From TrEMBL:
It holds the Pfam family Aldo_ket_red. This is Aryl-alcohol dehydrogenase-like predicted oxidoreductase. It comes from the Bacteria. SUPFAM superfamilies: NAD(P)-linked oxidoreductase (SSF51430). The lineage of its organism: Bacteria, Bacillati, Bacillota, Bacilli, Bacillales. Residues 15-314 form the NADP-dependent oxidoreductase domain.
Amino acid sequence: MKYVRLGKSGLIVSKLAFGAMTFGSGNIPSVYKVGEGQAKELVDKALDAGINFFDTADAYADGQSEEILGRLLGTRRKEIIIATKAGNRVGSGLVQTGLSRKHLFTACESSLARLNTDYIDLYIVHKTDPFTPLEETLEALNDLVRQGKVRYLGYSNWPAWMAAQALQMQRERGWATFINGQMYYSLVGRDIEHDTIPFMKNNNVGLTVWSPLAGGFLSGKYTRNNLNDPNNRLSGFDFLPHDKEWGFTILDKIREFAQDHGATPAQVSLAWLLAQTHVNSVLVGSSKASQLEDNLTAVKLNLTSEEIEVLEKLTRPVPLYPNWFTTMTLDSQVVEALEK
């Protein structure tokens, strides 16, 4: 296993993190489908492989994911890093959702109890909340850190402008700052390259990646013929938007590289992400031991610079305004002088 600092913090995390979203059972049977016995096998394999970074959320399988993970980590709790998230609905009440002070305090206490721990290493706000003032959310998060219930803070699924506003507010008030952003990123979903990654790099905010295989699409198990099979995961939980035909074109090239390396499409897709210097850690979630073993091997796969460049060009997102204007109007004389 390889390790890296998370952002500018002193937190050392494995380049592959284990995502426990599949633990438990619930209203999305294609996702929440791993019982405790099978979960133990997965957690043990992850620990044996050197993973020290485990991710879950209070809303996963109505809290079952946290409960199972907490029990399975047991006496090894102090050796590893637990990240959990809050913000999604966890009950029927109007206040049982969002990023208000009331809900965050309640959510944190509930997560601590389910995880059977005195503290959360990385507490992540799971989404934005347009109904709560940003200042209220950030002050509540700071208080949780000061109370010792949380060690570090992160956000997930926030636009770059909001994360920048939050970071500025935290710094101005002397509050605990975000060290991490957990975002969707894959070869068929590179939207964060427009603004989010430049913001993170400029501010030393660490990037962890969720759904690196685009909900399993890049695992290679889906084809044009079986994509609509009612028994596969994407049929019941396909919420990541991308042009599927374009995606299959990319998969054709991924399969070609996989064959050259004696690897799988999933390993190639993960290896491309791991080769991106701005990526700190990639979450791999599995429902089977064989899937986890396949994903773990990706950390040993070194794509050639030519292969990385081919995949980069094939999947490069169309520049957005004003980004394309900035690039188009760069002073070529100054660029040439600096390159010399």
